[in-house]
């Protein structure tokens, strides 16, 4: 793919479209848009220019310009992604939606909101909690990520076992297509089979099929009661073996079942200067149940707690008030950040397997850890079979050795995952980070169909090129 | 589109692929495959041949043959569809999955099943209820429809308010593409963002993007308790106005909220020789709540019942045992069948609007009913904003007049629906019945993208042609 450079004339045209103050060309300021939360030295790439448009119409004009001039475009939310999705792989223009952060409508009668993509996800819930409503999209980066990025990646998170992932709550989208048309998909309808479900195709397409400029999200009644259980196990295997049993044995679908191994808890606690009870347990599950009646929630929590104790848990701690709940969840939410401080050289993974296969996965991770002499701490959304195994560079290895080990160990982990019926990303996406592994897990026919869809939407391959798969 | 006829040589080749007994050419037997549950005289079309293959491999060979010879293919499930999706619009070959009805696996540990597409939906639940599990796909035709058809149409039904529609529970598909490749999409994973979500694109694509030959479905813990409320209202408006209030006021998401107007109840009761209490009420809501604790379910039912009485309900009847629940649900399930007996000339519609707009829709339906001097009984999944308004031929009109009125009245209903933020199908699909109205509700850009996707999958347009939209 040959792209053209962003010339002075193009900068002038961009200034004319979005206004001078919304065009960033200063190298120091551009730097912030060259990376996301993947390790910068491996994946970063500088944009030639960043624009911060204020409307779908402005974005449409920019996209038409980019098509005319064959300049690559990269849509960007908060830059909190973990697969390089918002990185301008081929330079060109970054379209940051940071200034498109308005609440267009709160529609209480339909229990929906209409939002711009640059809104911080957590702020949505802050706005509506007094009305007894909530948005069930809940990625771990909820305090910083944008709704637009959540849609692009079909973000998961800590409540997905019960509530599903972001896509379930996206009822409508306004999209600027890769050829610059503005189109509305879906609407305030909870059911719709009018032709192909393009809305759902856009969700999780990592900004390669267009730029979301507006979204209609569905709200749920805010649960009035919530209990978190912190359950300690002797070792990883007994914790992990518990996960499928909660749903099949307890016949309860908890809000979330999070898993943290000893190293993950330790690293996050040190980072937060926090002390959890029994920090020295081999592994922990953080199980949340919620509902609209205290008795029901307590009874569910009790059933799960007993089931855990019958199945080898050392101890079950109950967090039934906001302060203790925040303490335990904060440890869970900050693991990724803590590891980054501890070692900037790491590969945060996002593998997903059938839940009943998790117990078979863990010994394989241990084997790979030993084989390559690297630490592989593991945590994540065990209730969905989605584990953030993380390869951490051994300080004794050179960078050259690390890159070689990383590539080999990843291939081995992904192969093991695939053989267990799993795949390489549950919620972080493929982006540029994992695209070379797509052929390992996707059927060649499936890949070819994806490429054809991309071509149908984006004949010039200008929309977020270099993500998910390469052309030619 | 020019297709070739099915010659004797092709019949021989089909016999070679699926075996002589699986090729139907007898005209009398073919007739059964010429229609679905839409009125036959308007939409039926004879196939040239019907095949009943036993495997994906056989289907793959048939599809390759059809591509080579340019013969149209129509996949068919139980033929219980309501938009002509399984009708061979251009003749050619009907591929009926009726013999592909095996249970491949019941995976209790992952709470999933692997099934062939020809299995009757209700039989799935019969198989697993003793294990305390259930499949939440629940179309009204659950006792006759096939899983494959439910996937093709993304079927909704009576439990969608709480559980969502069929697509939410389809974890994986095996698909024979329109060019004859066999591909696996998804798997036993509850989260997956590995590239575009092709599985979700296939769901609801009405058999135009391939033939599903296997599906992995997700099961849920079977609720132990269930209460149905039959709530009587003076008139349609007060019943319909209640619907959004249950969720916003009661902060409860019931399993389902079904609506039946007086004429629908009367017709179904006569058909079943059934007598519901207060059959003379102007309209009824049938509200179901379920859960795993009797106290919770009873409390939810009580809250909803009180809310209804505060908002003008005449009476609330509680059906809390299997016999009475089956009685009221049977009336609801048999409305469509009853109307067909009463008048074979009718148009069963499937419009969907934002739930808060239902009260505005009803007077419009009444206006259209008066204007064209036809009855427009109305019933359906009010909790989803999805109403089966049905145009019934006035016996005083000639067939010619009826077809003219039907076309005009439909256009008017669809326009009203669109103006309220709705669309023309919530769960029955577009098929051949509604394709001429696609341009009324879909953005031209959206339609163009759909056509491009169809072309990318099916370059020769042999897979269920004449459905959703036409090509030149």
How would you portray this structure in words?
The structure is a homodimer of 472-residue chains. Chain A is of the alpha+beta class. Among the domains of chain A are: 225-335, Alpha-Beta Plaits, CATH 3.30.70.2190; 343-429, Alpha-Beta Plaits, CATH 3.30.70. Chain A is 37% helix and 19% strand. Chain A has 17 helices and 20 strands. Chain A has helices at residues 8-18, 27-31, 40-43, 56-69, 121-128, 147-153, 160-163, 198-202, 236-250, 262-272, 294-310, 322-333, 335-342, 358-372, 399-419, 438-441, 444-457; strands at 23-24, 49-51, 73-76, 93-96, 103-107, 112-115, 133-134, 170-176, 182-186, 211-218, 220-221, 225-233, 256-261, 283-291, 313-319, 346-348, 351-352, 379-381, 386-387, 390-392. In chain A, strands 15-12-14-13-18-19-17 form a seven-stranded antiparallel β-sheet, sandwiched between helices. In chain A, a hairpin with a 4-residue loop joins strand 18 and strand 19 (386-387). In chain A, helix 9 (236-250) packs across helix 11 (294-310), helix 9 packs antiparallel against helix 14 (358-372) and helix 14 (358-372) packs antiparallel against helix 15. The longest helix of chain A has 21 residues, at 399-419. The model of chain A has no long low-confidence stretch (mean pLDDT 95). The interface between A and B is large, with 90 and 90 residues.
